[in-house]
Specification:
The chain contains 24 helices and 24 strands. By secondary structure, the chain is an alpha+beta fold. The chain folds into five domains: 66 residues, Helix Hairpins, CATH 1.10.287.610; 233 residues, DNA ligase/mRNA capping enzyme (D-amino Acid Aminotransferase, Chain A, domain 1), CATH 3.30.470; 76 residues, Nucleic acid-binding proteins (OB fold (Dihydrolipoamide Acetyltransferase, E2P), Beta Barrel), CATH 2.40.50; 148 residues, DNA polymerase, domain 1, CATH 1.10.150; 70 residues, BRCT domain (Rossmann fold, 3-Layer(aba) Sandwich), CATH 3.40.50. The strands form six sheets. Strands 14, 15, 16, 17, 18, 19 and 20 form a seven-stranded antiparallel β-sheet that branches. The chain is flat. The relative contact order is 0.07. The site of zinc ion has 8 residues, from loops.
Length: 688
């Protein structure tokens, strides 16, 4: 056996030290960013640390540990989830709905242990999914869903992707119990919910119903990469079982202790000694709930002292020492008059409920989407049923289900998808294993009208004056039979003026808007075409990478797939679209009418946006002035001296003192070639 040489050992030792150092720093910055929301460094500095850590780990794979920040998204898609037996059952909570019921709950406790004075801890009840996390030796070991309270599913790989869940605790492992469990609620913020739905709307996909269901679906993805893309968040609300000695004597102490270890706990938690004040706190939240970044459906109230909790114990599956004040559900019952089907721009048929108008959650609701056939079947609602309609906050109204007792004795038809398109009569197509039914007729009038709406929408080419009604009119009256016809409308001015309700001012405004849209950059056009799976982010990535429609059309599927952020399904959809005869002709027709088919640097939207850059020494390719102009034109900021805020230093020949300063401060140095490589990586091309 050969001994490793001393220099190898030394190199290995320094790599090991560097890895430890980087991980500690990254964990610290994750905590500042995800838990405290008070970042200390910019994204590019953070990214640089991650890149370095990845590079060192690549050279020394034996140094990779499961709790390294690089390993948050790891592992292959799972076949299914293993079952986890909860060491202590995850109980459910009793409910109260008003002050009277809360006082009754308090009286029951008083009767039981002959005490009146309790300290209560109150916190908003997040409308998410309960989870259990187990830590051993200061490291995250595994995590599970609540399941039925006794057994949940092992979703460790998915939970690891949530940045506010620490993989390593901020404490000396020797000072911690050998192992313990914490419980929390995983949720999706309202903003993230909107972001995901906007993406889906742009890509012509079905919208998610509400943040809670979306969070649930995201946590149960078999591929952790999908979960990671959803930006879930968590609040830890309880210390569960503890091996060894329990480090705290009350619930509020437990929360403070957990916070000190790096867990995210809800800052709105409050403690009261008086049950009346608890009731007021709860009542106030009914009014204030809409102002929160996440959805809550009540307030959880717990007796603080753990000894008192034990004395009160559990009845059935509910602890006596806690209860949930549930907010009044914004629901109403109304008649489901019919289930109809609408046709979207991709031809997908979407069933929707036609309701007897009903006032719920502050608005009158007469229609609600039913998403797809599977959803209708799951709800088991039938035309003629009385149904429960719900509307919460800014979420679209939804049908919760039928009032079955009112169906008795009536024979109501089970909903079936129509066999032909309700608009054009073409037989409906359906792919085995997919929920969607669609009209395969490319000339289907409603499809085209919806496509015009999409093409002109503010996400796409942003052409004002082509709403739902006008788009339908243009198709119905034969003004438009293909998207390219839109640009021929100025030639049909006289005929347009014959349409009722359209005056000269309106048509001229339409024409001006159309003319203006011709200068929109390529990524807007890519969104506008309505290619399957292509939303804003995908379109921008493609436009940035290829720069022109021609380059994109010339690209092989593999080249499209090689673009950062583009997967095989999307690449194939894009390639198929561009190489379809009819769509290719459409693109040619649009080009002929003068639409822009490329993306310029300015429109590529600052690939150096947010970066503060120092240039030092002399470069081969550019003069100092030129390079500074270039950085600014790409959205970056140029400063004269190196500080902690500097993203990186571009160092040419010479440039001694700034180089030294950068090294002292740990600011990244890039030589000219590295700088050019960075620009190219972000889509800048050398001939610019
Ligand atoms: Zn049709």
């Amino acid at each position: 056996m050969t001994q490793p040489s001393t220099s190898d050992t030394r190199e290995y030792e320094s790599a090991r030290e560097r890895v430890e150092e980087l991980r500690t720093q990254i964990r610290y910055h994750d905590y500042r960013y995800y838990t405290l929301a008070e970042p200390e460094i910019g994204d590019s500095q953070y990214d640089a640390m991650m890149r370095e850590l990845r590079a060192v780990e690549e050279q020394h794979p034996e140094l990779i540990t499961p709790d390294s920040p690089t390993q948050r998204v790891s592992g292959e898609p799972a076949e299914g989830f293993a079952v986890v037996e909860h060491r202590e059952p995850m109980l459910s909570l009793s409910n109260v709905f008003d002050r009277e019921e809360l006082l009754a709950w308090q009286r029951r406790m008083t009767r039981l242990i002959e005490r009146e004075d309790f300290t209560y801890v109150c916190e908003p009840k997040i409308d998410g999914l309960a989870i259990s996390l187990v830590y051993r030796g200061g490291h995250f070991e595994y995590g599970a869903t609540r399941g039925d309270g006794l057994r949940g599913e092992d979703i460790t790989s998915n939970l690891r992707t949530i940045r506010s869940i620490p993989l390593v605790l901020q404490a000396d492992p020797d000072s911690l119990p050998p192992a313990f469990e914490v419980r929390g609620e995983v949720y999706l913020s309202k903003e993230e919910f909107r972001r995901l739905n906007e993406q889906r709307a742009e890509a012509g996909e079905q919208l998610y119903m509400n943040p809670r269901n979306t969070a649930a679906g995201s946590l149960r993805q078999l591929d952790p990469r999908v979960t990671a893309s959803r930006r879930l968040d968590v609040f830890i609300y309880q210390l569960g079982w503890v091996e060894g000695e329990r480090p705290v004597a009350s619930h509020s102490e437990a929360i403070a202790w957990l916070r000190s270890l790096g867990f995210t706990t809800n800052p709105l938690t409050e403690t009261f000694n008086d049950v009346d004040r608890v009731a007021t706190f709860c009542e106030n939240w009914v009014e204030r709930r809409d102002g929160l970044e996440y959805e809550i459906d009540g307030v959880v109230i717990k007796v603080d002292d753990l000894a008192t909790q034990r004395a009160l114990g559990v009845v059935g599956r509910e602890p006596r020492w806690a209860t949930a004040w549930k907010f009044p559900a914004e629901q109403a019952v109304t008649r489901l008059n019919a289930i109809q089907v609408s046709v979207g721009r991709t031809g997908v048929l979407t069933p929707f409920a036609v309701l007897e108008p009903v006032f719920v959650g502050g608005v009158t609701v007469s229609m609600a989407t039913l998403h797809n056939l599977d959803h209708v079947r799951e709800l088991d609602i039938r035309a003629g049923d009385d149904v429960i309609v719900q509307r919460a906050g800014d979420v679209i109204p939804q049908v919760v289900g039928p009032v079955l007792s009112r169906r008795e004795g009536r024979d109501l038809p089970i909903f079936e998808m129509p066999e032909t398109c309700p608009v054009c009569g073409t037989p409906v197509a359906h792919d085995e294993g997919e929920a969607a039914y669609y009209c395969p007729n490319r000339q289907c009038p409603t499809k085209l009208a919806r496509l015009i709406e999409h093409f002109t929408s503010r996400y796409a080419l942003d052409i004002e004056g082509f709403g739902e009604e006008r788009s339908a009119m243009l198709v119905d009256r034969g003004f438009v039979t293909s998207l390219a016809d839109l640009y021929d409308l100025p030639g049909k001015r006289e005929q347009l003026l014959e349409v009722e309700g359209i005056g000269p001012k309106t048509v001229d405004a339409m024409f001006a808007e159309l003319e203006k849209s011709k200068t929109q950059p390529l990524h807007r056009l890519l969104i506008a075409l309505g290619i399957r799976h292509v939303g804003g982010e995908t379109a921008r990535a493609l436009a940035r990478h290829f720069g022109s429609m021609q380059a994109l059309r010339d690209a092989a599927v593999e080249e499209i797939e090689a673009v950062d952020g583009i997967g095989p399904i999307v690449a194939e959809a894009v390639h198929d679209y561009l190489h379809d005869d009819e769509y290719a002709a459409l693109i040619d027709a649009l080009a002929e009418r003068g639409l822009r088919m490329d993306e310029d640097i300015a429109a590529r939207g600052g690939i150096l946006e947010g970066e503060t850059i120092v240039v030092t020494g002399s470069l081969d390719r550019w003069s100092r002035n030129e390079v500074e102009e270039l950085i600014k034109s790409l959205g970056g900021k140029v400063t004269g001296s190196v500080s902690k805020k500097t993203s990186f230093v571009v160092a040419g020949e010479g440039g001694g003192s700034k180089r030294d300063k950068a090294e002292t401060l740990g600011v990244e140095l890039k030589d000219e070639a590295e700088f050019i490589a960075l620009l190219e990586e972000r889509g800048w091309s050398t001939d610019e």
